[in-house]
Amino acid sequence: MRRIAACLLLIAAAACGGDSPTQPTPASVAGVWNLQTVNGSGLPFILAQLENDKVELTDDVLNVFENGTFTQLTHFRITQAGEVTTDSLPDAGTYALDGTAVTFTFESDGSTGTGSLSGNSLTVAAGGLALIYKKQ
Questions:
Q1: What distance separates the 2 farthest-apart alpha carbons in the chain?
Q2: Tens digit of pLDDT for each residue in 56-75?
């Protein structure tokens, strides 16, 4: 289960493209970013399924701060042999801005990734998944 959660963190940190007429600043990036869609579908999103067993992403929240740090909390619902449980995976790190791109560095494993900012949307793409976050 942790392996799937770790993969999700890598997905959330992966590179993507896009343009915005105004370059973001730490003040404009700061705030709470909620995952809205994965591949155009709302949540929960099935990350893995084998017959009746499955792992679903139920929500993901990025708290981004003006001082260049962030926290992340991802929640999952796991169905295995008819039993349903939930799990969460916290992480944190630092970020840097470069034009409309924001690069996150995760404390958990040192991985980095870049998302594209446009207004109140953060778009991340990796591993065939497109994730859209909206600023609260």
A1: 50
A2: 999 999 999 999 999 999 99
Helix boundaries (H) for the chain = 2-12, 26-29
Q: What pTM was estimated for this model as a whole?
A: 0.80
- Listed in order, strand segments (DSSP E) in the chain are 31-38, 45-50, 53-64, 69-80, 83-98, 101-106, 112-118, 121-126, 129-135
| Full domain range(s) for residue 116 | 2-135
Distance CA 125, CA 128 (A): 7
Which token pair is 123?
């778009």
CATH code for the domain of 110: 2.40.128.300
